[in-house]
Write a structure and sequence with these properties.
The protein is an alpha/beta fold and 323 residues long. It is built from 13 helices and twelve strands.
Length: 323
């Protein structure tokens, strides 16, 4: 029987001597280079280096299909299970749903999921149970903060739009949060459902016809707003709609403003969960973590194109100004 003092030393020796296999079901480097880079950097910070002590099996959420094509994502997840990965990292809501359907045995780490309780993935954030843990973008008052920020950008706007991905399971709770926040601010909030990327132009045209003066695009976890971020930013500008987004990457692509948790930090921090699991912890015992840091990013070029004079109080709070 091992001495209690020798146990941890033996465990570390066994860890160091094994080649671990990690499955990655997430956006490709062409789609989101910073996210994959952050994921690998987080692993390297903890001593996990490709080719040295880990092999990463990549399956892209956007390869040859729409990002939220559940059938293809499920095939990818099952393929990772067949390759006998020791742990699987899954990115957006459709990817994590596919991973959960593919296995209840392989540990799964969420990279950037909306609400794992609402999605039925975990029992509670503190004690998830089962084989899933990781990071969520869930923040109960984020919608309210976004609407308040948008009100600062266009203080006279009385009619705003909420753009939702119609297929997303989070729609009901997000709409409820947004409507309560809008009522507090005295704003008439209209909800628009985007069913597919092909409907984007018609949806934006409908917003203008209905007199919308500003736009909120929340994080619905489905990926469509992220993959279509350039077009989304272009349409908001073309319709002269000041818009706030839940992804910094959309602002980098030309959107006006974002207030959101920085996604690369979630991807980087996922390594902590993977490390704990490879060291023997059960994913069901590892609490799911919520974001603690939020970034305000403003694209000044877009503000100028929209002829917006942004208040100084907003500019001094910004974490980054894109000139």
């Amino acid at each position: 029987m091992l001495s209690p003092l020798l146990g941890p030393l033996v465990a570390r020796a066994q860890l160091a001597g094994k080649m671990w296999r990690i499955g990655y079901l997430g956006p490709s480097p062409e789609t989101a280079p910073l996210l994959l880079k952050a994921f690998l950097a987080g692993l390297e910070d903890l001593g996990y280096v490709e080719g040295r002590n880990i092999v990463v099996e990549y399956r892209w959420t956007n390869a040859g299909t729409r990002m939220n094509d559940d059938g293809v994502l499920l095939a990818h997840a099952r393929d990772l299970v067949a390759h006998k990965v020791d742990v699987m990292a899954a990115s957006i809501d459709p990817a994590i749903r596919a991973a959960s359907q593919a296995t209840n045995a392989v540990p799964i780490v969420m990279l950037n999921v909306s609400d794992p309780i609402e999605l039925g993935l975990v029992k509670t954030l503190g004690r998830p149970g089962g084989n899933i843990t990781g990071m969520t973008r869930l923040s109960p008052d984020l919608i309210g903060r976004n609407l308040q920020t948008l009100r600062e950008v266009v203080p006279k706007a009385s009619r705003m739009a909420l753009l939702m991905s119609a297929s997303n399971t989070m729609s009901r709770s997000i709409v409820g949060q947004a409507q309560r926040a809008a009522q507090t601010l005295g704003v008439d909030l209209q909800v628009f459902d985007l069913r597919s990327p092909a409907d984007m132009e018609a949806t934006f045209s409908e917003m203008k016809r209905k007199g919308v003066e500003a736009l909120l695009v929340p994080d619905t976890g489905g990926g469509i707003f992220f993959t279509e971020r350039v077009r989304l930013a272009e349409l908001a500008l073309a319709q002269r709609l000041p818009a706030i987004f839940a992804n910094t990457e959309i602002v980098e692509a030309g959107g006006l403003i974002s207030y959101s948790p920085p996604a690369p930090e979630n991807y980087r921090h996922a390594a902590v969960f993977i490390d704990k699991i490879l060291r023997g912890a059960k994913p069901g015992d590892i609490p799911v973590e919520q974001p603690t840091k939020f970034e305000l990013v403003i694209n000044m070029r877009t503000a100028k194109a929209l002829n917006l004079a942004l208040p100084r109080s907003l500019l001094v709070r910004a974490d980054r100004l894109i000139e």
